[in-house]
């Protein structure tokens, strides 16, 4: 017997008497939600409220403009306009839409209330 653990004698037990710890039954200490450090909590909150990627938003905006330009060019083709007239009108229409989008984007940009001023 070793420190009160095991058999008094291994004789007749079918074992050699060597005593091992059962590592499979150990309970691992886990950090609780209230025990987390502040910086770790901030990282978790930031990952929950991500801002959309500006490049993706710009790409979507440009796609919408191009779709409207394509619809205009198809409409003009059906009405019998020449290719050069269509290209001119579509180019001016595209410039108008892009300028309008830029103007709306600057008006729509408001400071985020959750963001701290720098």
From TrEMBL:
GO terms assigned for molecular function: mRNA binding
Protein name in UniProt: CWF21 domain-containing protein
SMART domains tied to this protein: cwf21
Gene3D superfamilies linked: 6.10.140.420
Domain CWF21: 57-102
Domain of life of the native organism: Eukaryota
GO annotation, cellular component aspect: nucleus
Record-linked PANTHER family: SERINE/ARGININE REPETITIVE MATRIX PROTEIN 3-RELATED, SERINE_ARGININE REPETITIVE MATRIX PROTEIN 2
Species whose genome carries this gene: Anas zonorhyncha (Eastern spot-billed duck)
